[in-house]
Design brief:
Helix content is about 75%, strand content about 0%. By secondary structure, the protein is mainly α.
């Protein structure tokens, strides 16, 4: 398994352009949240709902487990972010007249258009086309900048 530094360095190679980086700060969290919304809207079997869970929680748990293997510190940050996303997904589900899945689908489509535009400007293909795991690296690539800024070790 690659080390965290290897993943982050390789991801950084195709994210040098300032506009592309800015787009990523908007679109990567939007894509993650849209996936949470889409998973939130899938009817869950009794085994999950008996424990107050749904597919979004299961996928978020698996992602955090993956992050623990790379960096327990970043995993904690992502667990907090996922908790907030779950809170907002539930709030949207309870209060919005628009179905959660349709909000998730719209955000997903718009954010991916932004991502591909950013990579067009960058002149490099998105990293996940090389390795699908980069879809999980994007969020912690952003989070590591926040950690560095506030002095939290990776």
């Amino acid at each position: 398994m690659k080390k965290l530094s290897d993943w982050l360095n390789e991801y950084s190679e195709s994210h040098q352009n300032t506009l592309n980086k800015t787009i990523h700060w908007i679109c990567v969290p939007s894509i993650v949240f849209s996936i949470v919304l889409l998973l939130w809207s899938i009817p869950s079997p009794g085994i999950l709902t008996d424990f107050g869970l749904n597919y979004a929680y299961v996928v978020m748990f698996l992602a955090v487990f993956y992050y623990v293997l790379l960096s327990p510190t970043l995993a904690i940050g992502m667990a907090l972010i996922f908790s907030l996303m779950g809170f907002f997904a539930q709030a949207i589900q309870l209060s919005s007249p628009i179905p959660v899945w349709s909000i998730g689908l719209i955000v997903f489509a718009i954010a991916w258009i932004g991502q591909f535009y950013g990579h067009h400007v960058e002149g490099k293909k998105p990293s996940f086309l090389k390795d699908i795991q980069f879809l999980l690296i994007g969020p912690i690539w952003l989070l590591q900048f926040i950690y560095k800024r506030v002095g939290i070790p990776l």
